[in-house]
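Components:
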Amino acid sequence: MSLSETANPRGSVVDRLRDALPKLVLSPTIAIVAIFVYGFIAFTLYLSFTDSRILPSFGWVGWHNYENLFRIRAWDTAVSNLVVFGVLYITICCVLGLLLAILLDQKIRAEGFIRTIYLYPMALSFIVTGIAWKWFLDPGIGIEAVVRGWGWETFTFNWIKDRNFAIYTIVIAAVWQTSGFVMAMFLAGLRGIDSEMMKAAQIDGASTFALYRRIVIPQLRPAFMSAFVVLAHMAIKSYDLVIALTGGGPGTATEVPATFMYSYTFTRNQMGIGAASAVIMLMTIAAIIVPYLWSELREKK
Amino acid sequence: MSTMSRSSSLRPARVILYLLLALFCIYYLLPLYVMVVNSLKPLSEITSGGMMSLPKQWTIAPWESAWSTAQVGVEATGLKPYFLNSIIMVVPAVALSTLVGALNGYVLTKWTFRGATILFGLLLFGCFIPFQMVLIPMARMLGLMGLAGTVPGLIFVHFVYGIGFSTLYFRNYYAAFPTELVRAAQIDGAGFFRIFWRILLPSSGPIAVVCVIWQFTNIWNDFLFGASFSDFDSQPMTVALNNLVQSSTGVKEYNVHFAGAIMAALPTLLVYIVAGRYFVRGLMAGSVKG
Amino acid sequence: MSLKSLKLGLAALAMSTSMASAADVEVLHWWTSGGEAAALNVLKQDLESQGIGWKDMPVAGGGGTQAMTVLRARVTSGNPPTAVQMLGFDITDWAKEGALADLNILAGMEGWDEVVPEALQKFSKYDGKWVAAPVNVHSTNWVWANKAILDELGIEPPQTWDEFVAALEKVKASGKTAIAHGGQAWQDATIFDAVVMATGGPEFYQKAFIDLDEEALGSDTMKESFDRMAVIRSYVDDNFSGRDWNLATAMVINGDAAFQMMGDWAKGEFLNAGKKPDEDFLCFRFPGTQDQVTFNADQFAMFAQGPEVGKEQAALATAILSPSFQSAFNVVKGSVPARTDVSNEAFDACGKKGMADLKKAADSGNLYGSMAHGHANPAAIKNAMYDVITAHFNGEYDSETAVEELVTAVQINK
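Structure:
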């Protein structure tokens, strides 16, 4: 089905060059990824078996770093936090993003204006929005105090100070930041759908709901995949967000693998343990992402 | 895709629709409100409580300070000089990664070959590599390449970790693009680049917007690479903003911090607004008919 | 030695006539807030007057952790800065990697051994060689109090733990918050430092935190220290978690809270709010640690630029340790000079007290590195201790468990 296969196999040099052109265009990317992604992963894997502390060093210590890693309580907390955070964050962002995209696709007046409002949180760096969120969620000065000021004296919203709920405040802030971008991705997808097909279905008398469920949403599958990859990437790398909002606290209640890894590699001068946690993290990601990508990409063929 | 022909006649549904949209606007705007309001107050008003209320005494002094007199290093320069550093780095990095991503997406959907899917999968998996992990080996590579502490080095790093996503966006977008059009053009004698340039690129508006927004935001807001791989005269905006905000044992001027943060986000916001115009409906449909 | 110093002198001579562009120092630091940076500017101008350019490389955040991350990238890429602001055991770690310059010739000429307290030299020197130039000494076992509240309730600055608890009770009964505290690991640990010092005395502090003696770490004294932390916790308001230290200071400034335990940098917040020492606010040592000073010290570690110490680097180190810079910088920063022979003329009441305390503590062997600030044990152990202290302070562990966890934490990371 590929176009290049239709070319004459016994062509001249020019023809052969023309056939190779697509691959040539792709080759720098392949080289870069091979070195700067997979080469570095291999390097980290190697480091995780060494006694590296402040800088990489190459004394082999076997499984020692992994043994220590699993003795550290904060690591368990970090992993389970990532699961809770990742699932909630990805689901809410996708649902909200799709909803907003569909709402915005109804020939809305001032669409550009509203779209920008939904999108802008992405533009702000969490170095500072974290402070705004922290204040906002703080029971003493934020939303709780304001609502109580309105006369609802028993209103409580102190999740950020509560060990068991603090992780959910991170979900709230994270959804705020990226759901607008997810909306933009779905909106781009919606705009790419063939309008003829929609018209035909409408003439056949399909309801709006059925129209979206049967025709629009299935066509958004590639957009869903993009959204999933982007969100999963954000969830795994949610470092700035956690540091700005809770710093991993109260206690170690909101520690996530990214903060754990950074802390062990750079703050605690335990590069070996940091590398081990990175390896475990990548393996976990692979266990989730690879089957998903496999099923998504295979179906295309 | 016009569901509006019926819904515009249903007045109550439209009212609910707008109400919903407005409600979400409030959710997205609240933190900005906190930031704007506090950037317009004197510091004493903030530290004495009342972080959520409107300023009693309005002032733009924090904005002036963040722009030109705030202390971000040994000299009190404000954020002003760092803007240019960021722009010099961001624009080429975004342009390069978007262009290469578009080409990759084009090859991966319209010129597929054996193993292309696996290749794409491997490329995608690269998006998940934690940046903290690549810091040390990357520093070594940049040293070997002679790019340590230079702007081209920084551009290169952002380009490397940007192509995964830009390829993803374009590939998934072009997957829905009718292959017949490409085939027809090829029969007409158009070459590889000509097809890309004349047929795919003109209809890539919406996804290019998404991709540029993503790349621009990420690169502009990146701190880790910007701090690690820059030199004393090429530190980007975020490093300066971070220096402004994160003083360990000094007095924290929250009003200046907020003013600086909004200021630092202005270029990204500008990109959102300008690029947003290319989100226009029907680009794709038009090209299908033509 | 004489040959080397001659070389140094010749080099200095040569440099005064040669072009200035070759003679630059690049300095990586995290002093970016108004006062600190302005103070550092003094150093910059000093060097510029000698024809040495200053390349500024500020990276703030996380009490220097961001800068340390950047430093690793810089060293790995073969492009280390001339000098880097550094704390405690980080200096030792970098010296172990062989990355630091040997300043002994310069130190000998300038007589650093005589004027810098020995407790500080432990970090400025590695293997008998000077590798870093100390800038200041912060002391961390201070209590800051709102004088109006204390006067109103008739509270004298407490001298013992029991008096302190009685004072806290009085404040609590009056409806105000007794202790303003920010629930971040390093702040919890700052209090813990003082509590352990007061509970077990300096010898116990030395054994537990510096020698990492497992018996001391698992002792009943340690358990009592944790019990006292729980008492302190009961006088902190419910909203403390995650609060920045300066917001806690603001509570004392605004009269919402009576006390805060924090290092001497808190003074800047009071002064900035227009408050005066001894009139509006008081500073005193944590009850039971009147004779001791727990400290952390900022230093500039000098990275080797070649086989010899460059003349610019030598000039930088000399300028850092000059009495005039030590005074000018520390007046602004709120800390005290790293050398004990600097005139206290320019300092305010709290500053003079701090300098006198430091000298006294240094002379009597009562100067100890602060665990909370990385001057008692290496980063890995410090952070593991943080985990335990914070978990206990937030009620995840009782005192018994906390003691056990503390021992385990040290075992894993030793």
